[in-house]
């Protein structure tokens, strides 16, 4: 009887630890962005954070979701990808809103597709009435532009640098639709789905590259959350160690080592650029 109770107790403890580990896997990837979000919200300055980090994570987690239909890996990892995508959209929404609020002059709109003129918070507004009708005073600051940059202009300077949140959402909707169609067609092709899995891991491994390049260009890490990078590093060291100890495929731990290297390079930038002043904002005008 004692050994039965002992086995049941161990099983219960194992279940609890398993649920805790699954919860940590789902939420652990999101936690590094909490201090960065709070810092941007508090300072109303998004210039130290690269939105290309959000692009890298959105693409990586989208590819991981498509890969799940082939490999059916652990459910917590799938949920983690969904939660991470939602988190990245929250980061983008905050950065776009703050940039529009900080605009002190009329800027040329940069959008993904044709849409209504938007207010500072990204919501559509009506164009100004040119008739002699009475106008109600509005306390909301609006930025209206008669000319816009579209993605059809094929100007790489404006890709993923749009001035409204809807454009980022529209772009990812196109990516999801095209990706889902291709995945459905190519699902029986094993080498193609394996490539999708590798691209998901590799894209996530290059997560720190946009932030590293932004810091190098600005010669400053002002506005970037130091705590976010510390949490990146701790998480990536843990993942890489886990991959090695569990004899994961070579591309997993090689990509993990690349992530750790980028994290350490960004921490080195924090030390090198620690005395440099904040860069001038590039979003005060167009």
Defining traits:
2 strands, mainly alpha, disordered N terminus, globular, 286 residues
Explain how this protein is built.
The protein has 286 residues and is mainly alpha-helical. It is 63% helix and 1% strand. The protein has helices at residues 2-28, 33-43, 51-71, 75-102, 165-186, 190-205, 208-218, 226-245, 250-272, and strands at residues 109-110, 148-149. The chain has a two-stranded parallel sheet with strand order 1-2. The longest helix has 28 residues, at 75-102. It is globular.
List the helices and strands and how they pair.
Layout: H1 2-28, H2 33-43, H3 51-71, H4 75-102, E1 109-110, E2 148-149, H5 165-186, H6 190-205, H7 208-218, H8 226-245, H9 250-272
Parallel strand pairs: 1-2
Helix pairs in contact: 1-4, 2-4, 3-4, 3-5, 3-6, 3-7, 6-9, 7-9, 8-9
Number of strand elements: 2
What class do helices, strands and sheet pairing give? mainly alpha
- Spell out the helices and strands N to C: HHHHEEHHHHH
How many H/I helical runs? 9
The proportion of strand residues reads under 5%
Distance between the termini: 77 Å
Largest sheet: 2 strands, parallel
Strand arrangement within the widest β-sheet reads 1-2
Oligomeric grouping of the chains: single chain
What is the helical fraction, as a range of percent? Answer: 55-70%
pLDDT averaged residue by residue: 76
Rg (CA only): 23 Å
Low-confidence stretches: 1-6, 116-122, 125-146, 282-286
User: What overall geometry do the principal axes of the alpha carbons give?
Assistant: globular
